[in-house]
Design brief:
The protein contains ten helices and eleven strands. Helix 6 links the parallel strand 9 and strand 10. A six-stranded parallel sheet has the order 8-7-6-9-10-11, sandwiched between helices. By secondary structure, it is of the alpha/beta class. The two termini are 42 Å apart.
């Protein structure tokens, strides 16, 4: 059975896949469908219909253009079915395109121990895509693998796993093995397109890692990209060392690192656009 627009919208929202909800908000004269008709558009799929024809094809093209441009938010498109769309209906339609960019940030989490599991749980409601790695294949449960924005991977080769990370990912390293941690950090600091690198551990662990990285020929600039310890708030450390408390500070730190203030111009439709929308509708109905 073909997926309806509302079923597709629910699935895409949960999975963090970029998509556009197109809603016919006004119509005048003869039009294929009435206000309230909706369809969902992704980069390669379409769910439901606004009536077909050139007008719908133009709506799909506009939606995909906004997805390619990363133009999230609201966009209003006006169609004269006898003019812009060249259809014989002769009516007039306004379509509201709501562009959802999908996951707002990409997180790579290396380590599925106590702290890693708490970070994954606390991050679940947030609009993040998380790639979660561990070299112990039995660390991931069925429930972990069913979360729509959480993707579990086997960590067999640190260099290969780091090479496969998405550009601009925020990375946390907290495996059960110091040598594995070191191999990951050494690979990560060689990727300039990684947004941030965090390493769990004490001050003494980081001093040891820095000495080792310097001996292996890594530059001070590359080494300084690493945050260790992670989850430090206001340059102070919590006395509470429970996995949940540590995870809370780490997720808080990630929220600051991934925060992207919304520009004023993308806060909604401009008043002038709304006035034009209602004026055009009144003109075509009179």
């Amino acid at each position: 059975m073909t997926e309806t627009w509302h079923a597709a919208l629910h699935r895409l929202q949960r999975s963090g896949i970029p998509h556009v909800l197109a809603t016919q908000v006004t119509s005048a004269g003869s039009t294929p469908r009435e206000p309230g008709a909706r369809m969902v558009v992704t980069a390669d799929e379409i769910f439901d219909t606004l009536g077909g024809g050139t007008f719908e094809w133009q709506t799909i093209q506009a939606a995909r253009d906004f997805l390619r441009q990363g133009s999230s938010g609201f966009h209003l498109e006006a169609f004269s079915l006898g003019g812009r769309s060249g259809q014989c209906c002769g009516g007039f339609v306004n379509v509201l395109l709501e562009v959802f960019p999908g996951a707002s940030s990409y997180i790579a989490l290396f380590g599925a121990g106590h702290v890693g599991r708490e970070i994954a749980k606390l991050s679940a409601p947030l609009p993040w895509h998380i790639d979660w790695y561990d070299s112990r294949n039995d660390m991931f449960g069925i429930q972990d693998q069913q979360q729509p924005r959480l993707h579990c991977h086997s960590l067999t080769n640190p260099q290969e796993s780091v090479s496969a990370l998405r550009p601009y990912s925020h990375v946390l390293v907290l495996t059960h093995n110091h040598d594995e941690d070191y191999a990951l950090i050494a690979a990560l600091i060689q990727r300039p397109d990684i947004a941030s690198i965090g390493l769990i551990g004490s001050d003494s662990k980081w001093v040891s890692f820095q000495s080792r990285l310097k001996r292996d020929g890594y530059t001070p600039e590359a080494i300084q990209r690493v945050r260790c310890p992670i989850g430090t708030v206001h340059d102070t450390k919590l006395s509470n060392k429970t996995p949940y408390a540590i995870a809370m500070t780490v997720v808080t730190e990630l929220l600051w690192l991934t925060d992207h203030p919304t520009p004023d111009q993308t806060r909604g439709l401009e008043p002038a656009a709304l006035r034009a929308l209602f004026n055009d509708t009144a003109t075509h109905q009179s």
